[in-house]
Amino acid sequence: MKIGELAHRSGLTPSRIRFYERIGLLKAVDRKANGYRSYPAEAVTILGLIALAQGAGFSLDEIRGLLPADLEHWEHDALVGALTRKVADIETLQARLTRSKAHLLQVIDEIEARPDDIDCATNARRVLTRLLGEDAEMPVASLRAKQF
Amino acid sequence: MKIGELAHRSGLTPSRIRFYERIGLLKAVDRKANGYRSYPAEAVTILGLIALAQGAGFSLDEIRGLLPADLEHWEHDALVGALTRKVADIETLQARLTRSKAHLLQVIDEIEARPDDIDCATNARRVLTRLLGEDAEMPVASLRAKQF
DNA sequence: CCTGACATTCAAGTTAACTTTAAGGTCAAG
DNA sequence: CTTGACCTTAAAGTTAACTTGAATGTCAGG
C-alpha cells in the first residue's frame, strides 16, 4: 500500500503520516525500488490507534512512549498507568470546567438581574469587585479552540 | 505606577503587560518624561479581569472584543452573548470529556479483566478491533497541557 | 561617579502538531 | 511522448500567547 491509499484508508493526510515517521512515532517503513513508501495493512490500525489516543487526550510524545513495536505486545502496566492518569487529568479538568461554568452563569445573572435602583456603572463596579476578589484560575487551552 | 509595580500588583510579568499593549488589548498608556510607562490604579483591575477571562476560557482576541474603553460602560448584550456561548462551549467540552473518560475506563477494564483462557495477544486484538470500530473524536488540546 | 535595579525597543525564540512550498522523480494512460 | 496524478525531500510557515535576548537608557543610593 502506497502512502496515498494509507492516507485515504486512515483518514489522515500523507504529510501527516510522513510527519509521524519523521518524529519517530511510526517506525521507518519499507520502500519500493522507486523510493515510494510501502505500508503493510497493519499501518491502518496503527494510525487509527494514534488518532484515537489523540482524541482521548494523549500527546504524540505520550503515544510514542506507549505504542509498542508489535501491536500484540503491550507494556500493560505502563499502559494502564497512563490510562489511569489520563482519567485523573480528565476529572481535574471536569472539575475546573464545572467551576468556570458556575462563575460564568453567576456573572450572567448579576448582569441580567440588576435591581432597577442600581445603575449600570454601579452594578459593573459591584460585579468587578466581587470577581476580582476570588482566586483566579489558569487558562484552559481547549476552550479557545475554534473547533472541538 | 511604573510597569514593575503594576506587574507585581497584578501578578503578571512586565513583558506580558507590554505584549498586551502591543496587540491592542491594553490601550497605549501615558509616559513619563523619561519614556517610562505610567499606569493608573485602574490598570490593576483591567489586568485582573483579563487574567480572569482567560481562566474562564476566553482568548485574548475575544477579550479584546469585549473589554470596553471604560470599565463602567460595557456592551451588555455582546457580553451576555459571549458569556452564554462560552457556557455552551464548556458544556460541549464536558460532554466530550465524559465520553473520553468512559472510553478510557472501558479500555482499562478490558485489559485488567482479561479472562484466563484468552492470551494477551488475542485480548489485544479484541480490544483494538472494538476500539477502532467506534467513531473517533478530535484531539482536546487542554488534556495535553503540562499543567492545568 | 559608579553600580545595580529598573526601564525602553525590536527581533527572534518557544511549543505542539501539523501544513505548505519548492524543486524534483515516477508512472500509467492516451 | 506528453500529461497528470502520484511520489520524494528539506525547509519554512502556521497559531496562540508569551518569553528571551540584545542593545541601550534612566535613576536612586552609597
Automatic annotation (TrEMBL), chains A, B:
A Pfam family that this protein carries is MerR_1
Instruction: Write down the superkingdom of origin.
Output: Bacteria
Q: Which UniProt keywords apply?
A: DNA-binding, Transcription, Transcription regulation
Q: Which Gene Ontology molecular function entries are recorded, alphabetically?
A: DNA binding; DNA-binding transcription factor activity
Q: Where is the HTH merR-type domain?
A: 1-69
UniProt xrefs under PANTHER family:
HEAVY METAL-DEPENDENT TRANSCRIPTIONAL REGULATOR HI_0293-RELATED, REDOX-CYCLING DRUG-SENSING TRANSCRIPTIONAL ACTIVATOR SOXR
Q: What is this protein called?
A: MerR family DNA-binding transcriptional regulator
Please give the organism.
Gluconacetobacter takamatsuzukensis
